[in-house]
Amino acid sequence: MRKSLFTIIVLLLVTANSFGQTRKERKAMYDSQYNYELACLGVGNDGTKLLKVWGYGKKVDNAIYDAKRTAVAAVIFRGVPAGNGAAPTPSILPVDGYEQHLDFFDEFFKDGGMYLSFVNLTTDGTPGGSDNIKMSHGYKVAVAASINFNALRKYLEDKGVVKRMDAGF
Amino acid sequence: MKKLLFGAIILLICSVYTPVIQGQNSMGASDDFSRIAIAPTIPDAMKNMPKGAQDMLLGKMRQIIGLNGMSALDNAPLFIMTPQLMVLSNDVTPTAPPIYTYNMEVVLNIADRYTGNVYATASQQVKGAGRTEQLAYNNAFNEINIMSTIN
Amino acid sequence: MNRIIFILVLCLTTLVSWGQAKKPIIMIVPSDIFCVSHGYTTTVNANGKDEVMPDYKKAMQGSDELRMVITKMGAIMSERGFPLKDLEQTLKSIDTQSAEISMMTSKSSSAAIKETPIDVLKRTAKADIIMDIDFNVKRQGPNNYITFVLKGLDAYTNKQVAAATGTGKPSSAASADLLLEEAVLSHMDAFNGQLTTFFNDMFTNGREVTIALRVWDNAGVDFEQSFDYKGTNDQLSFHIENWFTENTVNGRFSTIDATGTMMKFEQVRIPMMFNLNGRDVAMDTRRYINNLSKFLSGPPFNLDNKIYQRGLGEAWLIIGEK
């Protein structure tokens, strides 16, 4: 009896540990600022990029706000992948650009920050179906966004965060 | 006596008033330049050259002949000046616009119109470039130094 | 008194301004294959051989799609700080220039403008970076789609410095013009990204240029002649290579060819700027090769020479005389 109890406890602890590591990894992934989930929806109008981007949040609205922020951050630090007839777009800054300009981007991406002026949502209302997934800690929501790419790049150039293409000439 | 005197007077008059008869002109016997006339011609082999270029070359040859006072008054004198072109290189650049370039040797021959015998020759290397073939030829022929080709 | 000196020093330091490097000229040119496939060609005879050459004027006058693409790309490049040199306008300008040169005479003696065949040869549309473009509207059943190829070529090194190529999404609704516009919008960012990388490399590692050395036929000297320079007796060609080692960025250059009468150097990395009387001034190949010219003009070589510039990134030095 004691032996069986001991074995069960040991097994439970081992299992608990392995579940704990997977949760940590998942949490690390969700919390990571580099976790951008997006897809290209096609060629946007002059100076814009059309993306489908996923955001996370406790409520659907929070997830939508997160998606907006992710859209702008992805365009700046990751670039836009190819898709739906559109060629890939390189990122405006390298992947570690946030760390290189920490103060600027903390201000830029704060709640209600400047980033909002470069993103327009083209999804009407609350996303439904596979674009709105309820998860254990909240919601994963996908929205279609149009990023004003040229204006965003120009803004970053004017702020001295990005070098102009003709800098030095 | 009267007959002899009359005859002597007639002889005297004849010796003074008889025009001098000469077999040649009034110039010195060795002055051939005054007697020779040369007409410039473009040979048939060069007729496929642009018309403007042919006229340019013809004009140059006339200038050379005229400077030496040997221009022909009629269209068919015995002597002609004919050009010969030896194209050393001819390129067209793959640029916008394409430029034609000619590097050639222009040989001018003075020859007998009927027998084809060449009596004198002079040559000059010329280079020309232009947006058209005619312009390239013209620029090349423009380099011909009319003062130096005939002694 | 100290304040006056301080102000004076401030004024002097502000006079030392930051110089800027020579900005490359960019021009869009339709590719040979575009011109040939659309019939915009002319046949010329060169050295006894008939050659088909692209007729850019005909292409500009005949293809409204090409005009639309060039205009769209020009707008994008202009926004990035590189207004493009327009090929059509340049060709017109060249025609006008030629006429003006042939008409112009001086007031005092009616002298005409002196023009050598080389001057005529150089009167063409030139750019430092050529955007070579080719596109085709193709059909797949009821749908149209675009194939788009854009190459950025360095006119002097002949290297491809940027490229964008792809096939657009087939569409039955969109017109060919709209599909072309989409193709341009889709590809230009990636193209400009690569161009930016090229420019950054230029500022980090120096501008890549091509230099050729030649000899006049009456020079009386060639590159195999030996000279004693700084205690080293060697052929002229090796003294020149040593000079390049000391005067290029990180000693980077490649000797492509070296004969008695010709030397060709490619991938020569020259600094973007040089110091002139305390000011940073932009360097180009002509300025750079002037230093080599002075080196060869001085002892022990004492070789008179001529600099012939072929653009921002290529120059020749001809030994013997001016």
> What sort of overall outline of chain A do the alpha carbons produce when their principal axes are compared?
elongated
Computed over alpha carbons, the radius of gyration of chain B is 26 Å
How much strand content do the residues of chain A show? Answer: 15-25%
List how many beta strands of chain B DSSP finds: 4
Instruction: Give the domain tally of chain A.
Output: 2
Mean pLDDT of chain B: 80
Q: What's the CATH superfamily of chain B, by name? A: Lipoprotein like domain
Count of DSSP strands of chain A:
5
* CATH classification, class level of chain B: Alpha Beta
Q: Kindly report the oligomeric state of this protein.
A: heterotrimer
- H/E series of chain A, N to C? HEEHHHEEEH
Strand content of chain B: 25-35%
| Whole-number total of structural domains of chain B | 1
How would you summarize what this structure contains?
With 151 residues, chain B is an alpha+beta fold.
Question: Would you mind describing this structure in some detail?
Answer:
- The complex is a heterotrimer of chains A (169), B (151) and C (322).
- The model of chain A has no long low-confidence stretch (mean pLDDT 85).
- Chain A contains five helices and five strands.
- In chain A, strands 1, 2, 3, 4 and 5 form a five-stranded antiparallel beta sheet that branches.
- With 169 residues, chain A is of the alpha+beta class.
- The longest helix of chain A has 30 residues.
- Chain B is built from three helices and four strands, in the order αβαβββα.
- Chain B has a single domain, classed as Double Stranded RNA Binding Domain (2-Layer Sandwich).
- In chain B, α2 runs parallel beside α3.
- Chain B has a four-stranded mixed beta sheet.
- Chain B is 28% helix and 28% strand.
- By secondary structure, chain C is of the alpha+beta class.
- In chain C, α4 packs across α7.
- In chain C, the strands form five sheets. Chain C has a five-stranded mixed beta sheet with strand order 10-11-7-15-14.
- In chain C, 29% of the residues are buried.
- In chain C, a hairpin with a 3-residue loop joins β10 and β11.
- At the A-C interface, loops of A face α7 of C.
